[in-house]
C-alpha cells in the first residue's frame, strides 16, 4: 500500500477547520500530523466535542517552520491576511498549500482594492484557482491552490457554461443566500440568534468582496468584461447556500442541454429538472443546478453546502488532485436528509 501523505490543518478551531478535520480523519491517504490554532495547547476534543472517540491530540501554536517539518501539504483555514504569512514561508520549504482564504484568489490589484495590502504578491500568479471543473489542469501542477469563495463557487458553476450565450451588453444579477456558518465562528451583531432567528436580510448589496471575484473569473474565461450585480443575504439556517442568477441571452436556448453537455463528465455537479433545494446538497460536495429560459431571459439556481463545496470538501478535492490521488477520494457524498 502507498505511504500516506502528511497534512496540516491550520485554523483548526474554526468552522471550516472542523470540516477539514472530519474529512481528513477518515481519508484513506491523508494523515493529519499537525493541528494548528492561534495560541496552541487546546485539546482537539475539547475544541470540537463532536470529535470525541474520533480524533485525539492537542493543537499547536501555528508556526510555518514547524509545519514544514511534519507536513507535505497544509490546509490554511484562516482569515484572509493571516493566510498569506503562512503560505509565503510554507512554499519556500516546498510544502503544498491549499488556502481557504481569499489571499491568492484575485490579481494583486483587485485584491488590494477590496481587502488589504498584499504581503506576498510574487506567489499570486503561481496560484491555481481551485474550482476543478474549470481549472483542473492548473491545479494538477500547482504548489499553491486558492480555494474559491463560497458564493463564487456556487455562482461560477452555474454561470460559466452560459458565457457563450450571454448578451455582451447586459449585466448578470446574482441574488444569493447563505447559512450563518458562512460568517465563521466569531459572533457579530448580524448573526446573533435574536437577530437572525425567523429573519433574513441582505448585506453589502453591490459591494460584497465576492462580486469582484466572480467578475474576474468570468473575465478570465472569455476575455470579455461582464457587469455583475451581486446581493448576498443571510438566512436563518446553519449551513447551505442558494444562488439565484438572472441573465439576458442573445437567443433562445435549451439551458438544460447546455448544462448537461458542459458537466457530462463531472460527477459532483448535478443538473436538476426541478428547482434545487438546500437540503439536497448540505453535508455533501455536490453542486446542484437548475436552469430555465423564457423570452431569452435565463434563470439559474445553484445550491451548495457553504462549508463543504464552498470550502473544506473543495479544499480536499484540490489536495487530492495536487497529490495525484483519485480526485474524489474521501469526499462526502451523502446529504443530511431529512
Ligand atoms: N465559513 C464558510 O462557509 C467559508 C469560509 N471560507 C474562508 O475560510 C477561512 C476560514 O473560515 P471559517 O472557518 O469560517 O472561520 P472561523 O472564524 O470559524 O475560523 C478561523 C480560525 O482561524 C484561526 N486563526 C485566526 N488567525 C490565526 C493565526 N494567525 N494562526 C492560526 N490560526 C488562526 C482562528 O483560531 P483561534 O480560535 O485559534 O484564534 C479561527 O478558529 C476564511 O478565510 C473564510 O473566509 C471560505 C468559504 C466558505
Ligand atoms: C454569511 C457570510 O458572512 N459569508 C461570508 C462569506 C463566506 C466566506 O467565508 O468567504 P471568503 O472565503 O471569501 O472569506 C461573507 O459574506 O463575508
Textual characterization of the structure:
The chain is globular and about 60 Å long. It folds into 2 domains: 5-147 and 311-322, NAD(P)-binding Rossmann-like Domain (Rossmann fold), CATH 3.40.50.720; 151-304, Dihydrodipicolinate Reductase, domain 2. The mean pLDDT is 97. The chain has 11 helices and 14 strands. Helix 1 (15-25) packs across helix 11 (312-322), helix 6 packs parallel to helix 11 (312-322) and helix 7 packs parallel to helix 9. It has helices spanning 15-25, 44-47, 64-70, 82-92, 108-114, 132-140, 150-159, 193-196, 210-222, 255-262, 312-322; strands at 5-10, 30-37, 60-61, 73-76, 96-99, 128-129, 144-146, 172-178, 201-202, 228-234, 241-248, 269-272, 287-294, 297-304. By secondary structure, the chain is of the alpha/beta class. The longest helix has 13 residues, at 210-222. The strands form 2 sheets. A 7-stranded parallel beta sheet has the order 3-2-1-4-5-7-6, with helices on both faces. Strands 9-10-8-11-14-13-12 form a 7-stranded mixed beta sheet, covered by helices on one side. Strand 2, helix 2 and strand 3 (60-61) form a beta-alpha-beta unit. It binds NADPH dihydro-nicotinamide-adenine-dinucleotide phosphate (NDP) and N-acetyl-L-glutamyl 5-phosphate. NADPH dihydro-nicotinamide-adenine-dinucleotide phosphate binds at residues 10-11, 13-17, 36-39, 62, 77-80, 82, 100-101, 149-150, 181-182, 184-186, 306-307, 310-311. Residues 10-11, 13-17, 36-39, 62, 77-80, 82, 100-101, 149-150, 181-182, 184-186, 306-307, 310-311 line the site of NADPH dihydro-nicotinamide-adenine-dinucleotide phosphate.
Amino acid at each position: 500500500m502507498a505511504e500516506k501523505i502528511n497534512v496540516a490543518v491550520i485554523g483548526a478551531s474554526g468552522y471550516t477547520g472542523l470540516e477539514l478535520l472530519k474529512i481528513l480523519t477518515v481519508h484513506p491517504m491523508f494523515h493529519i500530523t499537525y493541528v494548528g490554532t492561534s495560541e496552541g495547547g487546546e485539546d482537539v476534543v475539547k475544541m470540537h466535542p463532536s470529535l470525541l472517540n474520533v480524533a485525539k491530540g492537542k493543537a499547536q501554536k501555528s508556526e510555518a517552520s514547524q509545519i514544514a517539518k511534519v507536513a507535505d501539504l497544509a490546509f490554511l483555514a484562516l482569515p484572509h491576511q493571516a493566510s498569506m504569512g503562512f503560505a509565503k514561508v510554507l512554499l519556500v520549504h516546498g510544502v503544498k498549500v491549499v488556502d481557504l482564504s481569499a489571499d491568492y484568489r484575485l490579481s494583486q490589484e483587485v485584491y488590494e482594492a477590496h481587502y488589504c495590502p498584499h504581503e506576498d504578491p510574487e506567489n499570486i500568479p503561481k496560484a491555481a484557482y481551485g474550482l476543478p471543473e474549470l481549472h483542473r489542469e492548473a491545479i494538477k501542477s500547482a504548489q499553491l491552490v486558492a480555494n474559491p469563495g463560497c458564493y463564487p463557487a456556487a455562482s461560477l458553476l452555474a454561470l460559466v457554461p452560459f458565457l457563450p450565450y450571454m448578451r455582451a451588453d447586459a449585466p448578470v444579477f446574482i441574488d444569493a443566500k447563505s447559512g450563518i456558518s458562512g460568517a465563521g465562528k466569531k459572533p457579530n451583531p448580524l448573526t446573533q440568534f435574536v437577530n437572525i432567528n425567523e429573519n433574513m436580510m441582505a448585506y453589502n448589496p453591490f459591494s460584497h468582496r465576492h462580486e469582484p471575484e466572480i467578475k474576474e473569473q468570468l473575465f478570465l474565461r472569455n476575455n470579455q468584461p461582464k457587469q455583475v450585480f451581486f446581493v448576498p443575504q443571510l438566512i436563518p439556517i446553519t449551513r447551505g447556500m442558494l444562488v439565484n442568477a438572472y441573465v439576458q441571452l442573445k437567443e433562445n436556448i435549451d439551458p438544460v442541454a447546455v448544462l448537461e453537455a458542459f458537466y457530462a463528465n463531472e460527477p459532483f455537479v448535478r443538473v436538476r429538472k426541478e428547482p434545487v433545494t438546500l437540503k439536497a446538497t448540505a453535508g455533501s460536495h455536490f453542486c446542484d443546478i437548475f436552469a430555465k429560459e423564457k423570452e431569452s431571459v435565463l434563470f439559474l439556481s445553484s445550491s451548495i453546502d457553504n462549508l463543504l463545496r464552498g470550502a473544506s470538501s473543495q479544499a480536499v478535492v484540490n489536495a487530492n488532485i495536487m497529490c495525484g490521488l483519485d480526485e474524489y477520494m474521501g469526499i462526502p457524498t451523502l446529504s443530511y436528509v431529512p
